[in-house]
Amino acid sequence: MTNALTVDVHLDPDWFERTLRADVLEGLTGSFKELPPKWFYDDRGSALFDQITRLDEYYPTEAERTILRARADEIAITSGADTLVELGSGTADKTRVLLDAMARIGRLDRYVPFDVSEGILRSSSLELITEYPGLRVEGVVGDFEHHLDQVPGGGRRVIALLGGTIGNFGPVGRKALLTDVVSGMQRGDTFLLGTDLVKDTGRLVAAYDDSQGVTAEFNKNVLHVLNRRLNADFEPDRFEHVARFDDTDEWMDLRLRSLEDQTVRIADLDLDVHFARGEEMRTEISAKFRRDGVAKELAAVGLELERWWTDPAGDYALSLSSLR
Question: What is the CATH number of the domain that holds 81?
Answer without folding.
Answer: 3.40.50.150
